[in-house]
Design a protein that fits this description.
Layout (H helix, E strand, L loop, with lengths): L1 H20 L3 E3 L3 H17 L1 H7 L1 H6 L4 H16 L3 E3 L2 H21 L4
Antiparallel strand pairs: 1-2
């Protein structure tokens, strides 16, 4: 349970950083809505991302993993579609924002791993 809450906060922090530093990602809302957005991104990563990754595995292989960045951008696009307070203006901001959120999640998992 604690790990899930940490991931939600990491997603929210990544979205906040993306809003601040990547032109084309616009977030409007308060802290509670930011945490809700972190939850939505986490659920999409849990439910949709494995399916998309499985079916796009040949592209991931051919591009030596670079297509995974596009998948992260698509996940952020889907979150923006589901959330009224998040807007993504273009493909490159989506890819950069998705990559930023993924890197922050990777860092948090490394810091808080219980192994």
């Amino acid at each position: 349970m604690t790990r899930a809450l940490i991931q939600i906060v990491a997603n929210a922090a990544g979205l906040w950083l993306a809003d601040r530093f990547i032109p084309g990602i616009i977030y409007s809302g308060d802290l509670l809505y930011l945490l809700l957005a972190g939850l939505v991104i986490g659920l999409i990563n849990l439910l949709v991302k494995p399916i998309v990754t499985f079916f796009s595995f040949p592209l991931i292989l051919v591009t030596l993993g670079l297509f995974y960045l596009v998948i992260n951008g698509l996940i952020l696009y889907l979150a923006a579609y589901l959330l009224d307070g998040l807007r993504i203006e273009g493909c490159m901001p989506a890819i950069l924002g998705g990559t930023l959120i993924a890197l922050l999640n990777w860092l948090v998992r490394g810091l808080f791993s219980s192994e």
